[in-house]
Automatic annotation (TrEMBL), chain A:
<dbReference type="Pfam" id="PF13932">
    <property type="entry name" value="SAM_GIDA_C"/>
</dbReference>
<dbReference type="GO" id="GO:0030488">
    <property type="term" value="P:tRNA methylation"/>
</dbReference>
<feature type="binding site">
    <location>
        <position position="371"/>
    </location>
    <ligand>
        <name>FAD</name>
    </ligand>
</feature>
<dbReference type="InterPro" id="IPR049312">
    <property type="entry name" value="GIDA_C_N"/>
</dbReference>
<keyword id="KW-0520">NAD</keyword>
<dbReference type="GO" id="GO:0002098">
    <property type="term" value="P:tRNA wobble uridine modification"/>
</dbReference>
<comment type="function">
    <text>NAD-binding protein involved in the addition of a carboxymethylaminomethyl (cmnm) group at the wobble position (U34) of certain tRNAs, forming tRNA-cmnm(5)s(2)U34.</text>
</comment>
<feature type="binding site">
    <location>
        <begin position="14"/>
        <end position="19"/>
    </location>
    <ligand>
        <name>FAD</name>
    </ligand>
</feature>
<comment type="similarity">
    <text>Belongs to the MnmG family.</text>
</comment>
From TrEMBL, chain B:
<keyword id="KW-0547">Nucleotide-binding</keyword>
<dbReference type="GO" id="GO:0030488">
    <property type="term" value="P:tRNA methylation"/>
</dbReference>
<feature type="binding site">
    <location>
        <position position="457"/>
    </location>
    <ligand>
        <name>(6S)-5-formyl-5,6,7,8-tetrahydrofolate</name>
    </ligand>
</feature>
<dbReference type="InterPro" id="IPR018948">
    <property type="entry name" value="GTP-bd_TrmE_N"/>
</dbReference>
<feature type="binding site">
    <location>
        <position position="84"/>
    </location>
    <ligand>
        <name>(6S)-5-formyl-5,6,7,8-tetrahydrofolate</name>
    </ligand>
</feature>
<keyword id="KW-0819">tRNA processing</keyword>
<feature type="binding site">
    <location>
        <begin position="229"/>
        <end position="234"/>
    </location>
    <ligand>
        <name>GTP</name>
    </ligand>
</feature>
<dbReference type="InterPro" id="IPR025867">
    <property type="entry name" value="MnmE_helical"/>
</dbReference>
<dbReference type="InterPro" id="IPR005225">
    <property type="entry name" value="Small_GTP-bd"/>
</dbReference>
Length: 628, 457
């Protein structure tokens, strides 16, 4: 028997990485928000690797922060180690990665959620949606609580019809033996949603004191202060924990090969599609049989735990085989396994059923985000979560939705990929997915998105003013470099000799000097310092913008082309089946995706340039008819 | 609307004495002005005027005598600035003029693009929208067919190989970027530089062959073969008469390498070794099967002539066997005589080769033969607007851009720019080469990364 449990503007179902960002965004934008989760102890839980960031993923964390989200701040408060990766490969691909204290991460996030105004946190398993005339109007929990809402965001992760597989053993379960959500999955199917079955996995955890670290290589954190959030002011450089590197060997591979017949991956027990970028160890050994060894990283799961995550050893082999495998690895000869690794299968929504706002096409006011949309990774989930939360709130407030395009953010690349192309495996962001990679840098996420975050009300006035000052300072310093000339004075020549650059014949402006490959902003500041000291983040922008000006300009030209195509809007409910001149394949694909612009249409696989020409002509005549 | 500036040949190719190259877009006048020398700069002439002058190539040499119409927006076909260059109609000169125009930063027009712009700019009435769509569709489909024909050949294989090399290099770069801690060797500057230079060299080779514009400039090398007395000479003469041949007498050469050009429905044929046609020896017997196969294999097109009024002889059979794997047409001549040839056997021996029966004497079947020649090279659907030629110019333009772009990658490596910048140029090169063979940008790279490297958490 149901009961009326309350009315909210926005309800978020699931409190993982997508759910908390969605709920925090909606609440902070002034919507009364309810966050429902199966288990209050599992908020922002990390069921897999205890780390956040890395290439593309770290970029997303910065973007979330620039939009006013929480992930960056939370990891800055709870990391045990931070490193900047790809430092030698150029500004576009540099990225931060942190090892998290996963327990502290959860608790800190839970506190933030609990203390956020407009946000109600409650335990409950949602079984059904309240739907009237194609509009989602609320949710019903297993205990019979009926919550009404103007918008609902589903972020159910891997819980939908979750199934854990370890060797021959299979049982219904969410991640880490949490309760799975069976009813909601069936209900979504009933409502007409197309679901797919995906698979992912996690490695075993082992006891810290049973590891002989002397047989491994140490992987320390950086010895400079790092932070994801633009608001973070406290750093911990000293107090970091190292990770450790070791390898599999022939013996490991032999044991795996001997037990392949018991591996669910190969015995046919697993039906879901797993990600290629995150294969299990048995998969790696079968597919790359000529590789003599594979890397294994040993990562502490936190400061107040002995559990260590064995990165690189994701597996669903039987428990006893897992232990045998572990013991072959250098440093793990006497290891004590605390939890076995497992594979997990779950239902996901085919993401081409979503608008770029993450609202479903089938039901109005229903949004989905995170692993439910076929992605993988905490950062990908959080990136969608904040966008779904923002758009749900904007819808409730009767405002224009927010869609980030491919030239603005990795978040935009990801969502566009998902809703335009769909995905045949759990989707992971890679920097190579971003065609405007040189613009979507880790360093300039604030330049790209703070303005937007401020406009929607997620960035405080104080932070916005600070951002504007930074922007001004960058322009002023660039102007100074442009207009200041420097002659062949001894200290200049000496500096140039030292860095291996050609000495000056005549006076040259500092701007041109900085463009030389060997010269950095630091050198410039040495020989011709600004009157006031230039903050490091300003100097970084000045240096990157000047040094890579040519390439940045090339990308901006590409973006111009993109924007022109994105500006040509297509009506939402066009029936492409009736447009003469379109190839049949294009009609079907277009009808499925329902692109919002010519630009989006052109990215659908199977839609040819000729189809786009036809669409342009059709659109023009459509607009003229409408104008008449 | 603002569009880039485009150009294309507006008149059917190879026919008529005058050809028109149409240029449309905001840079149209400036672009043609750069290569035009007349009494007045085109930028200063009145709209809707025709101006006499010469086109000057990049070396300052006079290329062509031309009449140039200047029509300023909006009273033009596309409602943009339009320039039309009227030049001599020969294939060679039209191609040179078009290439020169394209070298001024003008893009080759897509099929139907002028009409599309006319419509999008409001020049064409709404009621014609459907007709515009049909036009785009039809032209594009036809162009695609021709392009496919071309790219199934050697060019596409070469480019495919080049792209695969680039793709592997890209995957290697990307894997070190997206998986920085993985035990994959970093891509060194030396490797980047070597690979890029190799690619640049290969593109240069492609360009040098493409630049010869073999087929377009020289025509399809065509050989007429057959036993004595089957009517080779009369067929040659007939083709020559039929289509207003251009006979070039190359100075300093002897009679036996006189090459004769004919234009069959837009397909330029270069009839080589025509002297040989008049010889009366059994080629296969004289030089052997292998040798004759090799010799005939150099031809782009072989016309094998048989005699309707005589029984098949071994020499005919030999020739049929030799030409069977080639681009050949089997012609049974002299249908005016009483039949002695066994057509069943001919059909069997000819296999998939097109078979045409004609009578040169009675002037029967010549038109059908011409059609077969044209369809063989244009997949049957291309009429007088020579799209092979058009897409070729586009290919050259893309290859030139690819050459420039990979050059920028090399420069970036030399200047010590980081790998993310170099990767940008390499990826762009790969995309440009993809456009040549009609491969859309896809998830190839991601696929390559995961099949080439073992990754995982």
């Amino acid at each position: 028997m149901g009961y009326q449990a309350g009315t909210f503007d926005v309800i978020v179902v699931g409190a993982g990485h997508a759910g908390v960002e969605a709920a925090l965004a909606a609440a902070r934008m002034g919507c009364s928000t309810l966050l429902l989760t199966i288990n209050l102890d599992m908020i922002a839980y990390m069921p897999c690797n205890p780390s956040i960031g890395g290439p593309a993923k770290g970029h997303v964390v910065r973007e979330i922060d620039a939009l006013g989200g929480e992930m960056g701040k939370n990891i800055d408060k709870t990391y045990i180690q931070m490193r900047m990766l790809n430092t030698g490969k150029g500004p576009a691909v540099r990225a931060l990665r942190a090892q998290a204290d996963k327990f502290l991460y959860q608790h800190t996030m839970k506190q933030t959620v609990e203390n956020t105004e407009n946000l109600t946190l409650r335990q409950g398993m949602v079984e059904r949606l309240i739907v009237e005339d194609g509009v989602c109007k609320g949710v019903i929990t297993k205990t019979g609580a009926e919550y009404a809402a103007k918008a609902v965001v589903l972020t159910t992760g891997t819980y939908l019809r979750g199934k854990i597989i370890i060797g021959e053993l299979q049982y219904e379960s969410g991640p880490n033996n949490m309760q799975p959500s069976i009813g909601l999955s069936d209900h979504l199917r009933e409502l007409g949603f197309e679901l797919v079955r995906f698979k992912t996995g996690t490695p075993p955890r082992v006891h810290n004191s049973s590891i002989d670290y002397s047989k491994t290589e140490i992987q320390p954190g950086d010895d400079v202060s790092r932070a994801f959030s633009y608001e973070t002011t406290e750093f911990r450089v000293e107090d970091q924990l190292p990770c450790w590197l070791t390898y599999t060997n022939e013996r490991t591979h032999e044991i795996i090969n001997n037990n392949l017949y018991r591996a669910p991956m190969f015995s046919g027990a697993i039906e879901g599609t797993g990600p290629r970028y995150c294969p299990s160890i048995e998969d790696k050994i079968v597919r790359f049989s000529d590789k003599p060894r594979h890397q294994i990283f040993l990562e502490p799961e936190g400061r107040n735990t002995e559990e260590v995550y064995v990165q690189g050893l994701s597996t669903s082999m039987p428990e006893e085989v897992q232990l045998e495998i572990l013991k072959t690895i250098s440093g793990l000869e006497n290891v004590k396994m605390m939890r076995p690794g497992y594979a997990i299968e779950y239902d996901a929504i085919v993401p081409s059923q979503l608008w770029p706002t993450l609202e479903t096409k089938r039901l109005k006011n229903l949004y989905t985000a995170g692993q439910l949309n076929g992605t993988s990774g905490y950062e990908e989930a959080a990136g969608q979560g904040i966008m779904a939360g923002i758009n749900a709130a904007l819808k409730v407030q009767g405002k224009e939705p927010l869609i980030l395009d491919r030239s603005q953010a990795y978040i935009g690349v990801m969502i566009d990929d998902l809703v335009t192309k769909g995905t045949s495996e759990p989707y992971r962001l890679l920097t190579s997915r971003a065609e405007y990679r040189l613009l979507l840098r880790h360093d300039n996420a604030d330049m790209r998105l703070t303005e937007i975050g401020y406009k929607i009300g997620l960035i405080s006035e104080e932070r916005y003013q600070r951002f504007l000052k930074k922007k001004e300072a960058i322009e002023a310093e660039k102007e100074r470099l442009r207009t200041t000339k420097i002659g062949p004075q001894p200290e200049v020549q000496q500096m140039l000799r030292e860095v291996g650059s050609k000495e000056l014949d005549n006076a040259i402006d500092l701007y041109s000097l900085l463009k030389r490959p060997e010269v950095t902003y630091k050198h410039i500041a040495q020989i011709a310092p600004a009157e006031m000291e230039i903050p490091a983040d300003v100097a970084e922008q000045v240096e990157i913008q000047i040094k890579y000006e040519g390439y940045i300009r090339k990308q901006l030209q590409d973006v111009d082309r993109l924007k022109k195509m994105e500006k040509k809007r297509l009506p939402e409910n066009l029936d492409y089946m009736n447009i003469q001149g379109l190839a049949m394949e294009a009609r079907q694909k277009l009808n499925k995706v329902k692109p919002l612009s010519i630009g989006q249409a052109s990215r659908i696989s199977g839609v040819t340039p000729a189809d786009i020409s036809v669409l342009l002509v059709y659109l023009e005549s459509y607009n003229r008819k409408v104008a008449n | 609307m603002d569009f880039d500036t485009i150009a294309a040949v507006a008149t059917p190719l190879g026919e008529g004495g005058i050809a028109i190259i149409r240029v449309s877009g905001s840079d149209a006048i400036a672009a043609v002005d750069k290569i035009f020398k007349g009494r007045q700069k085109l930028s200063t002439v009145d709209s809707h005027t025709i101006n006499y002058g010469h086109l000057i190539d990049e070396n300052g040499e006079t290329l062509e005598e031309v009449m140039v119409s200047v029509m300023r927006a909006p009273r033009t076909f596309t409602r943009e600035d339009v320039v039309e260059v009227n030049c001599h109609g020969g294939i060679v000169s039209v191609k040179r003029v078009l290439d020169l125009v394209l070298a001024q930063g003008v893009r080759m027009a897509e099929p139907g693009e002028f009409t599309k712009r006319a419509f999008l700019n409001g020049r064409i009435d709404l009621s014609q929208a459907e007709a515009v769509i049909d036009l785009i569709r039809a032209k594009t489909d036809r162009a695609m067919k021709v392009a496919l024909n071309q790219v199934q050949g050697k060019l596409s294989k070469l480019i495919g190989k080049l792209r695969q090399q680039l793709l592997e290099l890209m995957a290697h770069i990307e894997v070190t970027i997206d998986y920085p801690e993985h035990d994959v060797d970093e891509v060194t500057r030396t490797l980047l530089s070597e690979k890029s230079r190799w690619v640049q060299g290969e593109i240069e080779k492609l360009l040098s062959t493409a630049k010869q514009g073999k087929i377009l400039r020289e025509g399809l090398a065509t050989v007429i073969v057959g036993r004595p007395n089957v009517g080779k000479s009369s067929l040659l003469n007939s083709l020559l008469q039929e289509v207003k041949a251009i006979v070039t007498d190359v100075p300093g050469t002897t009679r036996d390498i006189i090459e004769e050009y004919v234009n069959v429905r837009g397909v330029p044929l270069r009839l080589v070794d025509t002297a040989g046609i008049r010889e009366t020896e059994d080629i296969v017997e004289r030089i052997g099967v292998e040798k004759s196969r090799e010799m005939l294999g150099k031809a782009d097109l072989v016309l094998l002539v048989l005699n309707f009024g005589e029984e098949l002889e071994d020499e005919d059979r030999n020739l049929l066997a030799v030409v069977k794997p080639m681009n050949a047409i089997v012609i049974v001549n002299k249908t005016d005589l009483p039949q002695k040839i066994d057509m069943e056997e001919v059909r069997r021996l000819a296999g998939d080769l097109p078979l045409v029966t004609i009578s040169v004497k009675e002037e029967e079947g010549i038109e059908q033969l011409e059609e077969v020649i044209a369809s063989l090279f244009f997949s049957g659907s291309v009429q007088s607007d020579d799209l092979t030629y058009v897409s070729n110019s586009r290919h050259i333009q893309l290859l030139q851009e690819a050459y420039r772009t990979i050059g920028e990658a090399i420069e970036a490596v030399e200047n010590g720019l980081p790998v993310d910048m170099v990767a940008f140029d390499i990826r762009r090169t790969w995309e440009l080469l993809g456009e040549v063979v009609g491969d859309a940008v896809s998830d190839d790279l991601i696929d390559q990364i995961f099949s080439q490297f073992c990754l995982g958490k």
